Amino acid sequence: AFDSISIKLPQADESLLLDALTQLVVQHGILRVKGFAAIPGKPMRLLIQGVGTRFDKHFDRAWRADEERATHLVLIGQELDATVLEAQLRAAVAG
Q1: The whole model's pTM is what?
Q2: For position 40, which CATH number holds?
């Protein structure tokens, strides 16, 4: 059985976010990461897909005027604690 948790974060520095995701994968055995991020100063969404500690990322499209600029991620693994993972991510991207 796999767990799938969704996390919404504010805009985040790209390198801080990717470093934090890599650490979470190692610490918590996360298998997949999918979603998009709002990067300050960038007019486009950063699409993120990860398998283990390998991440692929690219800007996929411009933010629409009616869209909230926020980061949305889905983490997939086993026995994931959503509260712990979200707290760790928030602390890491806060810089």
Answers
A1: 0.93
A2: 3.30.1220.10
